[in-house]
Write a structure and sequence with these properties.
This protein is α/β, with parallel strands linked by helices and 317 residues long. It has 14 helices and 9 strands. The chain binds NADP nicotinamide-adenine-dinucleotide phosphate (NAP). The site of NADP nicotinamide-adenine-dinucleotide phosphate (NAP) has 23 residues, from helix 2.
């Protein structure tokens, strides 16, 4: 018991010493994940003065509030390489939050950020990637992230890959909708995904930025179990008190149904492609990374939906 307590205190002290020497840069600081990471770092007792918060919109209310607490809030845009040198000056670790939207020039934008950080003397870059980005080679989301991963590894800086699973945060909305409809329609009934909350991704990111031992490592950041249409229907039924049916269609039937609802062709193609993306063995494997990195178990979808019980019950009326 005493030995455990001393080991715990030593770890706490070490992480504080490590973070005291570090200046941690967060890119995308005004975004949803960025805000949660900042809060997670402050909860780990990183001093606000040791945070460098970089955003294209440094004047937002939340960032101004962090500035008042002592954080350095700076303008930086991956599309304006000249802005990044000043933005990253003095930083020792960088959380590079991937920009939204696949395809296009996303890896090029990320490379601009990596080059600027290396030039500024940053010693570790943690990048928010996609689960199993190295293995799920046919993924429409992962391919793009993999390109950035390789660019980061080639840069020579110590890298940490936070391969985040699909966020679970949209599931309460989806559950509310299927409760209201009384059914979930799918053409991919076996698409089970180990969804993770943004909050758990943020806690994991804060851990790798404030504790040692994460250089040149990759983590699949997932929830504790894989949830597919059957599990979602069962949870929504149980929590809302209304029976929700699972309707399995062929892909053609599914497309026709979306057409009948008035969805444009591009929207239908995107919806179908995303459903296929989720139907992969590479998305089903839960990892223990959240618990390993943060000391707290990852949030289950059940817990997330139970926290929204009132909404789901209201939708059942
Ligand atoms: N795992 C998943 O299910 C999932 C789902 C959606 C997205 N993602 C990925 O995870 C990332 C973070 O998620 P999120 O929910 O926090 O998304 P988000 O709220 O859209 O945040 C993304 C941030 O990227 C920054 N950004 C965009 N363009 C930039 C540029 N040219 N230069 C510098 N920064 C730029 C923006 O920060 P500023 O406005 O502060 O500059 C933006 O707020 C997403 O961008 C996406 O790559 C993952």
């Amino acid at each position: 018991m005493m030995r455990k307590l001393i080991a715990g205190l030593a770890l706490l002290l070490f992480s504080q010493i490590a973070s005291a020497a570090d200046k941690i840069i967060i890119s995308g600081a005004s975004g949803q994940l960025g805000g949660l990471v900042i809060d997670a770092l402050l909860a780990r007792r990183v001093a606000a003065a040791d945070l460098i918060l970089v955003s294209r919109t440094p004047d937002t209310g939340a960032l101004k509030a962090y500035a008042k607490r002592g954080a350095s809030v700076r303008f930086g845009d991956f599309a304006q390489p000249e802005s990044l040198e000043a933005a990253y000056r003095g930083g020792t670790r960088l959380l590079l939050i991937s920009v939204n939207g696949g395809g296009g020039n996303r890896p090029d934008l990320h490379k601009t950020a990596i080059d600027a950080a290396v030039h500024a003397g940053v010693k570790q870059i943690a990048y928010t990637s996609y689960v199993n980005a190295d293995r799920y080679t046919t993924s429409m989301i992962g391919t793009d992230h993999r390109r950035t991963e390789l660019l980061l590894q080639e840069s020579g800086v110590a890298w940490t890959l936070l391969r985040n699973q699909i966020y679970a945060n949209g599931l309460p909305d989806q559950a509310e909708q299927i409760v209201r409809d009384g059914k979930l329609v799918t053409f991919t009934p076996d698409a089970r995904v180990a969804y993770v909350t943004r909050e758990d991704c943020a806690a994991a990111a804060a851990a790798v930025l404030t504790t040692p031992g994460h250089d040149n490592k990759a983590y699949n950041i997932t929830g504790p179990d894989a949830i597919g249409p059957s599990e979602l229907v069962a949870l929504a039924s149980e929590i809302s008190g209304k029976r929700v049916a699972l309707v399995v269609q062929t892909e053609d039937e599914y497309r026709r149904q979306l057409q009948a609802s008035g969805m444009a062709e591009a929207g239908i193609n995107g919806t179908v492609a995303f459903a296929k993306e989720l139907d992969s063995p590479y998305l089903r494997e839960p990892s223990t990374a959240v618990a390993d990195l943060t000391g707290k178990p990852a949030t289950s979808v059940r817990k997330l939906l139970e926290a929204n019980r009132a909404r789901l019950r209201a939708a059942a009326q």
